[in-house]
Design goal:
3-stranded antiparallel beta sheet, alpha/beta, 7-stranded parallel beta sheet, 8 helices, 10 strands, globular
């Protein structure tokens, strides 16, 4: 697990965007795993800018989102399909028929979950998966107690996650308590994983992910098993790590090695 500690959220977004830009420059028909929430928005703005500057193209790209609220149609303003259209897809040269989000309005959600797994497999698997992290360590909507090898499935949201997301819903508006989410095993299948975290409110989750035990109590700790997982975090999110200077030193050495190898 590579730990990159940067000064602030803007630096985190820029660093994360550059990882995706390099991926698309290397492989124009990449399969991208995407995430919603406030953290990825600035990263998406970086990708939009790079696309408009013709540094990258999305014309041959397929995307798969982590999750969706169960019970919301894609046209609902709080659905993650709507979010992705607003924050990214409407602003780049991507074929929307090649952008996949778990169907929150599926008549048979169980079958839809299996179908999503089959779509990912048919696309050749995910080249690079973007993640955020919840205060309780969830990735996607894989809440604490999620199986570390779970696949795409219907998942009940915890009270902590419901409370955190309540700010996106109007008072009295229906807020789903169920979701469809990629499983932890599905996420671990991605060739590369990039997790972004900013702010002191994520510090406990980051400490548990990096320095804690591999446990279903902190779903993100499963990234300890991945051979190419990068955590890009700001100083506030890193504030509870035992030795931030050590992680910064290791990253500096990694950058020197990559420069020497021309990577």
């Amino acid at each position: 697990m590579q730990i990159v500690i940067l000064k602030d959220s803007a630096s985190v977004a820029e660093y994360g965007a550059n990882i995706f830009i390099k991926q698309l420059q290397k492989k124009a028909d990449s399969v991208l795993g995407l995430a919603t929430g406030s953290t990825p928005v600035s990263l998406y703005q970086g990708l939009i800018a790079a696309n408009k500057a013709k540094q990258i193209s999305f014309s041959g790209v397929k995307t798969f989102n982590l999750d969706e609220y169960l019970g919301l149609e894609g046209t609902h303003p709080q659905s993650y399909r709507y979010f992705m259209n607003e924050q990214l897809f409407d602003h780049i040269n991507i074929d929307k028929s090649q952008t996949f989000v778990p169907p929150g309005d599926a008549a048979n959600p169980i079958e839809a979950c299996q179908g999503y797994e089959e779509q990912i497999k048919a696309a050749g698997g995910i080249d690079i998966q973007l993640l955020g992290i919840g205060r309780n360590g969830h990735i996607g909507f894989n809440e604490p107690s999620s199986g570390l090898m779970s696949r795409t499935r219907v998942k009940t949201l915890t009270k902590a996650t419901i409370d955190d997301n309540a700010r996106f819903f109007e008072a009295g508006e229906y807020q789903p308590h169920l979701s469809i989410t990629m499983g932890i095993g599905t996420i671990l299948d991605a060739k590369k994983v990039v997790l972004l975290a900013t702010g002191e409110n994520k510090a406990d989750a980051i400490k548990a992910t990096v320095e804690g035990a591999l446990t279903a109590a902190c779903p993100a700790s499963a990234l300890q098993l991945h051979q190419d997982a990068v955590l890009v975090i700001d100083e506030a999110a890193a504030s509870k790590l035992t030795d931030c200077d050590f992680y910064k030193h290791i990253e500096a050495e990694n950058q020197k090695l990559m420069a020497r190898l021309g990577l």
